[in-house]
Write a structure and sequence with these properties.
With 633 residues, the chain is of the alpha+beta class. Among the domains are: 205 residues, 2-Layer Sandwich (Heat Shock Protein 90); 142 residues, Ribosomal Protein S5, domain 2, CATH 3.30.230. Helix content is 36%, strand content 21%. The chain contains 21 helices and 24 strands. The protein has a 9-stranded mixed β-sheet, with helices on one face. It has a 5-stranded mixed β-sheet with strand order 12-13-16-14-15, with helices on both faces. α9 packs parallel to α11 and α19 runs antiparallel to α20. The longest helix has 24 residues. The termini are far apart.
Length: 633
């Protein structure tokens, strides 16, 4: 028997560990199980290098709860420890046995791949929930004897000989009174599901029955003899998840199954996926899935999960991948990312920046490949990934440079174009725009149907831009596209665009126009409307409601969180233009009408029709319009 003092710099190390080591005490399960995985992988590595022999085919980790004894036991059949190694690795806080092992065998890197490491304080996380911790361990080395190490949370520990037949280590936690929740099966199962779901060594927790001899049945299917059953351990993890395999060894069905394994509550299948596999200049594996992304940003419930050697680290991957990639789902696994790190360290780590850039490039390359390989299929998925692509173009210049080759514009007829394709498509209708390429667009096909039809009748094409990100996207790409302007189909410039190539003279004299404007303004009586008289085609509506393009853009940007002075636009009332078509027969009729009351009623009716077309006629005014319409009929 020997007694010693743990080699730390302060007598208060255990209160510090209990309170500050990890913000979430459940992490102790991850740390201890990961250490058990390390011990197992070390044994496999030594066997592969010929350093030891034996049957290592049945290696697993087991977790057992005993509510009466208030113990939680984590056992492995790995490398084990001698008494000297216990003194060295356990009694010196923050000395990592995994790191020393990797350093010793660094020239044989293939054999040591998969050793998690980074666990300087991992074992001591046990004291966050345990009043006392025991270690019973036996080394794999020949002629080794088992030892038991015990510590009750003070700097003093005891080491005594122990009885243990097999190699490996048992960590026995005597759970403290304030942590009895960790004696509940459901609690431990939930933690294992969260952190250890894909660890590379089978983990046994609980048991279940299997049929070893099937039940016997008669000709009618009735059971004549029950099945013989056997109770076996339940393996709660998948040691070989899809991302650890080669893409060539996986089918589409394998990827779909893995997606459902990651997100069992998500019933929609992914559109496609990217299998990451990098070994230089850093190690990175993983699979990123493209889900259907709705037009509105929703809270991301099924996030990308970050692993280190199959140990779950976090699903807050904002520093690992660019913000727009967090719209995707899946797994990233890299041993080059430290397992326990602060967010600020991640932001300053060189590997993290390289990983982020590489993932962005891989995603852009995959999208371009899909576009070139099967454009019709890509177009069929465009609405489901449009937000993602546009967000990426807004967020990352390198992604923009690649995405402009496959980013699509879709018109009201459902046809898709690249930006270059679209310029060529609309070129014939651009003869009256001073050589500026005008992209007409709508954000609501149903509400703006009359404007769309009018534009189309003049040979213009109209794009559909109806997502919440489109306002940002338009403002972003306009300066990048030489001599291009986006104009909404109901904007204050549309009335100029839809004129015939030769300006049409007004059927009204200047004096008549002056009088008409005064009457219209008196009928409208609303400071939010600016009355403009235009000589349009007699077949165009008598009145149109348009909105100043600049003001609407500023309000849209403000609504989406535009900074600086743009916020002032969000509080300003909507401004509208009332365009009066001086060549419409109704306007001529109004001018010739001698009865002033009839004249005003006709103008009011025409104005309300224009408001109705824009969804701006509501409440009392809508009621009056309906009543007036009935009377006119």
């Amino acid at each position: 028997m020997s007694t010693g003092t743990i080699n730390v710099q302060t007598e208060n190390i255990f209160p510090i560990i209990k309170k500050f080591l990890y913000s979430d005490h459940e992490i102790f399960v991850r740390e201890l199980v990961s250490n058990a995985v390390d011990a197992t992988k070390k044994l496999q590595a030594l066997s592969a290098m010929g350093e030891t022999t034996g049957d290592f085919s049945n290696l697993f980790i087991s977790i057992q709860l005993d509510k009466e004894a208030k113990t939680l036991i984590i056992s492995d059949r790995g490398i084990g420890m001698t008494e000297d190694e216990v003194e060295k690795y356990i009694a010196q806080v923050a000395f990592s046995g995994a790191e020393e092992f990797v350093e010793k065998y660094k020239d044989k890197s293939d054999a040591v791949n998969g050793i998690i490491g980074h666990f300087g304080l991992g074992f001591y996380s046990a004291f966050m929930v345990a009043a006392k911790v025991e270690i019973v361990t036996k080394s794999y080395k020949d002629d080794s004897t088992a030892v038991s190490w015990t510590c009750d949370g003070s700097p003093t520990y005891n080491i005594v000989p122990a009885e243990k037949v097999d190699r490996g280590t048992d960590i026995i936690l005597h759970i403290a009174e304030d942590s009895l929740e960790f004696l509940e099966d459901a609690r431990i199962e939930g933690i294992l599901e969260k952190y250890c779901k894909f660890l590379p060594v089978p983990i046994h927790f609980g048991t279940h029955e299997i049929d070893v001899v099937p039940a016997e049945k008669d000709e009618e299917g009735k059971e004549t003899k029950p099945a013989e059953k056997e109770t076996v351990p339940t393996i709660i993890n998948n040691p070989t998840p899809a991302w650890t395999k080669k893409p060539a060894d996986l089918t589409d069905d394998d990827y779909q199954k893995f997606y459902r394994e990651l997100y069992p509550m998500n019933f929609e299948s992914p559109l496609f996926w990217i299998h990451l596999n990098v070994d230089y200049p850093f190690n990175l594996t993983g699979i990123l899935f493209f889900p259907k992304i709705k037009k509105t940003f929703e809270t991301q419930k099924d996030k990308i999960q970050l692993y280190s050697n199959q140990v779950f680290v976090t699903d807050a991957v904002g520093e690992i991948v660019p913000d727009f990639l967090t719209l995707l789902r899946g797994v990233i696994d890299s041993p080059d990312i430290p397992l326990n790190v602060s967010r600020s360290y991640l932001q300053s780590d060189g590997n993290v920046k390289k990983i982020s850039s590489h993932i962005t490039k891989k995603v852009a390359d995959k999208l371009e490949e899909l576009f070139k390989k099967d454009r019709p299929d890509f177009e069929s998925k465009w609405e489901d990934i449009r937000i993602f692509v546009q967000y990426g173009m807004l967020s990352d210049d390198k992604f923009y440079d690649k995405a402009k080759k496959f980013a699509l514009l879709k018109n009201v007829d459902g046809k898709c174009f690249t930006m270059d394709d679209y310029k060529a498509h609309i070129a014939p209708s651009q003869t009256n725009t001073s050589q500026k390429v005008i992209h007409l667009y709508t954000n609501n096909v149903e509400e703006q149907h009359s404007f769309i039809e009018t534009a189309k009748s003049r040979g213009y094409d109209v794009l559909v831009m109806d997502s919440m990100i489109d306002a940002h996207f338009i403002n972003f790409v306009e300066p990048k596209l030489e001599n291009v302007s986006f104009v909404r189909v109901d904007s204050d410039t549309i009335d100029k665009l839809i004129k015939k190539e030769e300006p049409m003279p007004s059927l009204l004299s200047e004096k008549e126009q002056e009088a008409l404007k005064k009457v219209v303004e008196s009928v409208i009586g609303d400071e939010k409307f600016s009355v403009n008289l235009e000589s349009l085609s007699p077949t165009d509506p008598p009145m149109l409601i348009t909105r100043p393009e600049f003001m609407r853009r500023m309000k849209d940007m403000s609504a989406l969180g535009g900074g600086g002075g743009m916020n002032m636009f969000g509080t300003m009332p909507d401004m509208h233009n009332l365009v009066v078509n001086t060549n419409h027969p109704l306007v001529s009729k109004v001018i010739s009408e001698k009865n002033e009351q009839t004249q005003k009623e006709l103008l009011k009716q025409a104005c309300d029709l224009a408001l109705l077309a824009q969804g701006l006629l509501k409440g009392e005014e809508l009621t009056k319009f309906i009543k007036r319409s009935v009377e006119l009929i």
